[in-house]
């Protein structure tokens, strides 16, 4: 199995929640998306969420609605990404 | 809200299930991933799953573990993608 470059910071769900206001506009207040073209995030794996946010931030993820997430992720630090990922993975 | 090029075929969950054997190796038999770097798919929005698979197939999605999915999606038709997306979105 190929798992290149996988690393996951611990992440603080409370700090992630505090930062998640803008995310809720599309992904829903509880991580259930408002529009079906966007993914539900509640309960998603933390490591995957981190990997995805970093790929959007690096503009490696294109296609679909990626331009929206590239813009959102541009201002996130590694710590922000760890916290947001911890928060959404903690939701049911 | 930007929703360029959104279109979703109906998709047949039963045909999707029949095609999902290889997906289960990473995403789990019931759409719950075996390894946390991969996403859970159960209950994910159908339109998002379709959009993601097409972005992997077109190699627009890079970064993270994208090379794995690019290879998997390469042989999928639009109908396969619609069916697989319908199947995974139907799981709880």
Question: Quick recap of the structure?
Answer:
Chains A, B: One of its GO terms (molecular function) is heme binding. By secondary structure, chain A is mostly helical.
Explain the overall architecture.
Two copies of one chain form a homodimer. With 92 residues, chain A is mainly α. Chain A has a single domain, classed as Cytochrome c-like domain (Cytochrome Bc1 Complex, Chain D, domain 2). Chain A is 48% helix and 0% strand. Chain A contains five helices and no strands. In chain A, helix 3 packs across helix 4 and helix 3 (46-57) runs antiparallel to helix 5 (78-90). Chain A is globular, with a radius of gyration of 12 Å. The mean pLDDT of chain A is 93. Chain A binds chain B through residues 1-3, 6, 8, 26, 33, 35-40, 43-48, 51-52, 54-55, 58, 60-68, and chain B through 1-3, 6, 8, 26, 33, 35-40, 43-48, 51-52, 54-55, 58, 60-68.
Annotation keywords:
homodimer, Cytochrome Bc1 Complex, Chain D, domain 2, 0% strand, 92 residues, 48% helix, mainly alpha
């Amino acid at each position: 199995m190929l798992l290149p470059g996988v690393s996951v910071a611990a992440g603080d769900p409370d700090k992630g929640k505090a930062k998640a206001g803008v995310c809720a506009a599309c992904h829903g207040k509880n991580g259930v998306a408002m529009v079906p073209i966007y993914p539900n995030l509640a309960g998603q794996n933390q490591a995957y969420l981190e990997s995805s946010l970093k790929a959007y931030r690096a503009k490696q993820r294109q296609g679909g609605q990626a331009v929206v997430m590239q813009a959102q992720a541009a201002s996130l630090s590694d710590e922000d990404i760890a916290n947001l990922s911890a928060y959404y993975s903690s939701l049911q």
